[in-house]
Amino acid sequence: MATIKDVAKRAGVSISTVSNVLNSSKYVSDELTQKVQAAIADLHYRVDVTARNMKIRNTKMIGVIVSSFHIIFVPQVMNGIQKYASEHGYQILFYSSDFSFEKEKHCVSLLLDHKVDGIILNSVASYLEKKYFRELASLTASHKKVFVVSLERNLSSYGIFSVHVNNFLGGKIATKYLLEGGCSHIAVISGPKIHDVVYDRLCGYRAALEDAGLVYDTSMIEYGDYTTLSGYLAMKRIIMNGIQFDGVFSCNDQMAIGVLKAMKENRIDCPSRVKVIGFDNTYVSSIAVPSLTTINVPKVRMGTVAAQKLTEMIEGTLPSGEITYEIPIGLVQRTTTDPDKENGIELEDW
User: Fold this and answer.
1) What is the pLDDT of residue 54?
2) What is the pLDDT of residue 26?
3) Is 320 helix (H, G, I), strand (E, B) or coil?
4) Is it true that domain 61-164+299-318 has CATH number 3.30.70.2210?
5) Which residues does 310 contact at the CB level (< 8 Å), separation at least 6?
6) Would you state the torsion angle of the CA atoms of residues 138, 107, 198, 275, taken in this order, to the nearest 10 degrees?
7) What CATH superfamily is the domain 167-296+331-349?
């Protein structure tokens, strides 16, 4: 591969002259400019953008760490990040922690080694890892000046800009809708206990029950890991334990699909006998049979905003004092609660 030194030698000029032509940093005569451009074409020379940007302390690269590429919520968020970043001249390095906190920390280290300008992080760390969150926040203040945006989780109390939804409200809306539909024994298929996203959704569930004068019963809760299989197994445990239920709130759509499969195998009709609500409004919710009522999270929008806010931080244009952005959510009614409802397919999710 040709170097800038090779270009200078071919053109018969100094290296600094070639640099001035490439960067338009100083005046170079038309004659010398043409010689340099001819040498570049002859040698098929390509500028090392990363090396050049590092000299001005800006690599135009951002890192993205997600929980898992296998969770169907994630690729739709990634689409929003990718589109915005590419439109604004940024390259992206994508990593998955596969729901491993240790792997997440390793991914952060790798991105710092790559000298990225910023990181969008969908953290899987326990809400108890306060020291870790403080360390992430300190990256912005350190000499490295690496900016961090939290995706999905609200870590703004640590000084980390957060793009998230109101998970408490989502859990409450879902549960209240089941109650209004006549359910009084609502089971929950939750994600991992250590995640505050899940905790907030469960708090919303509990608040809706208490508002209705019902008792919060932990025996109605089973835990999964956001996958379809975990939702299926969690629902099987509820059924085998003899728990009486007429409604199910699943903390994501993917687990809800497993719930529907387990119910079908046990001849539990939905929605005439048991109503089911998911969370996220991913594409599977509209193609499931019956189609899944769910809480809509604008996933592409979430990714777009995360990328936008990170680039604003990098470029110094983020409004002073702004530390969080809440993505609005809402209920999408389909046939797992309302047999006469249409599927309500969202084309952007396909």
Assistant:
1) 47
2) 67
3) coil
4) no
5) 62, 118, 119, 120, 147, 149, 161
6) 150
7) Response regulator (3.40.50.2300)
Following DSSP, what letter does each residue of 244-276 receive, concatenated? --SEEEESSHHHHHHHHHHHHHTT--TTTT-EE
Per-block mean pLDDT, blocks of 10 residues, the chain (350 long): 85 85 73 87 74 60 94 94 95 94 94 93 92 90 79 94 97 98 97 90 98 96 96 98 97 97 97 97 93 96 97 90 95 94 58
List the beta bridge partners of residue 249.
188, 277
Kindly report the number of other CB atoms within 10 A of residue 240's CB atom: 10
CA distance 207 to 201: 10
Task: Mark out the alpha helices in the chain (DSSP H runs).
Answer: 4-11, 15-23, 30-43, 49-55, 73-87, 101-113, 130-141, 167-180, 196-211, 228-240, 253-265, 284-287, 299-315
Measured CA to CA, the distance from residue 76 to residue 78 in angstroms comes to 5
The answer to whether the CB of 98 falls within 8 A of the CB of 122 is: no
